[in-house]
C-alpha cells in the first residue's frame, strides 16, 4: 500500500513540455507515451520522468493515438495475461473464445489477442455499432446479448 498522499494512475500519454539538458531522444513538443510498470502517479497535469520511461510517438500523433497507446498498458496486458497465463486452454488454435463486452477496452484487446492466437471469436455486444466494431476487429460471430434468449 502506497503511503499517503498518493497520486493514482499508471498509464499516460501526452506532449513533452520540458526536458533536461542531457536528454537526447526527446524534445519539447514531442508526443510521447509513458511506461511506468507497477508505479502510480500519472493522474496529474504534469509528471516528471526519466527519459527511459518514455516512448516517442509519431510527430503527427492524434488524440486517438494517445488513447491507443494508453490502452496497451491496461487493456492488452490484462487480456494477454488472462488468455496466455490464466486460461485453461494451452492452445487456442480453433478453440472458441466467448468475449462479453467485446467492444469495450479489455474486450477489444481480448478479441485482438484471441484472433492472433487462432481462436474462433464469439463477441458479445449490446448495440449494432458495437457489434460492427467487433466484426471490424475480426470477430467470427457478434452476438446481441441484450436480446432475450441469446444464450
Automatic annotation (TrEMBL):
<dbReference type="InterPro" id="IPR011032">
    <property type="entry name" value="GroES-like_sf"/>
</dbReference>
<dbReference type="GO" id="GO:0016491">
    <property type="term" value="F:oxidoreductase activity"/>
</dbReference>
<protein>
    <submittedName>
        <fullName>Uncharacterized protein</fullName>
    </submittedName>
</protein>
<dbReference type="InterPro" id="IPR036291">
    <property type="entry name" value="NAD(P)-bd_dom_sf"/>
</dbReference>
<dbReference type="InterPro" id="IPR051397">
    <property type="entry name" value="Zn-ADH-like_protein"/>
</dbReference>
Amino acid at each position: 500500500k502506497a503511503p499517503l498522499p498518493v497520486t493514482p494512475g499508471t498509464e499516460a500519454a501526452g506532449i513533452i513540455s520540458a526536458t533536461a539538458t542531457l536528454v537526447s531522444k526527446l524534445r519539447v513538443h514531442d508526443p510521447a507515451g509513458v511506461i511506468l510498470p507497477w508505479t502510480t502517479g500519472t493522474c496529474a497535469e504534469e509528471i516528471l520522468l526519466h527519459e527511459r520511461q518514455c516512448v516517442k510517438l509519431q510527430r503527427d500523433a492524434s488524440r486517438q493515438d494517445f488513447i491507443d497507446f494508453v490502452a496497451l498498458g491496461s487493456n492488452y496486458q490484462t487480456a494477454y495475461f488472462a488468455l496466455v497465463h490464466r486460461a485453461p486452454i494451452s492452445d487456442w488454435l480453433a478453440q472458441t473464445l466467448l468475449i462479453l463486452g467485446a467492444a469495450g477496452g479489455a474486450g477489444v484487446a481480448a478479441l485482438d489477442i484471441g484472433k492472433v492466437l487462432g481462436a474462433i471469436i464469439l463477441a458479445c455486444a449490446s448495440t449494432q455499432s458495437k457489434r460492427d466494431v467487433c466484426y471490424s476487429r475480426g470477430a467470427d460471430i457478434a452476438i446481441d446479448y441484450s436480446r432475450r434468449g441469446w444464450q
